[in-house]
Amino acid sequence: MNNMKLRLLVLFGLLTSLLVSAQAQTSNNDVAFVDAQGKVIPNGTTVVLNTVKEAMFPPGWKEIAGEVYIKNTSDKDLTVTLFCRINSVDEGNVTVCALGGCTPVEEGNSTEIGSQPLLAGSERESIAIEHTYEHSEKGSITLKITTKESDSEQQIEGPSITIKFDTNAAGIASVASQKGLTYDVFNTQGTLLYKQLTSLSGLPKGLYLVRQQSAKGVTTIKKCVIH
20 to 30 A Cα–Cα from 220, which one of 139, 158, 208, 211? Predict the structure, then answer.
């Protein structure tokens, strides 16, 4: 009886070890999304893009464009693939350019944008996002990374982030005193003016781009007008 229990315990231990090993192979953090300053954007973050300009085409349309980056943070050479899925878009077109590809994204499918090797310690790679529309900019997309080691055919799940298109900047100043929030403040040319502020109440009058980060790592970028 004792031998039977021992064999069952050994079998259970082996199964547990295999399960943990399999889970470790299905997701990792070897590659990360980072912002313009090289700061890691945590998995699951929503980044808001809201700077509007006139689109070159079609005439009369508007455009919201932004940029995030991919960086190999591991000590291994990896092949990295970026996928994009439209969650919802009121109207217009979304195009994402990265990793050697530049692809219009269609609703209903996860679209492969590009794939290329990223060497350990290499520079970050840009992800350029463009949303053109006529009347309503509202919508969001999800960006997701998979990786593959050079000597393996197994695709490993990486992080994902949501990109939200929303020109409504109202409310950012009113939450300046919320606990745990910090703000990096840029001018409209993208120059960093203030870092890790805990309140926006002391800013001089003007128009700013503000990157807000919560205590949980949720990052949003919005326009802020100080009167």
Answer: 158
DSSP notation for 108-166: TSEEEEEEEEE-TTPPPEEEEEEEEESS---EEEEEEEEEEETT----EEEEEEEEEE-
d(CA 227, CA 207) in angstroms, rounded, equals 9
Q: What is the pTM of this model?
A: 0.65
In sequence order, the 6+-apart residues with CB closer than 8 A to the CB of 14 are none
Is 30 within 8 Å of 74 (Cβ atoms)? yes
Distance CA 211, CA 150 (A): 36
Highest-confidence segment of 51-60, 133-142, 186-195:
133-142
Strand partners of residue 68: 127
Cβ distance 45 to 71 under 8 Å?
A: no
Is the distance from CB of 37 to CB of 69 less than 8 angstroms?
no
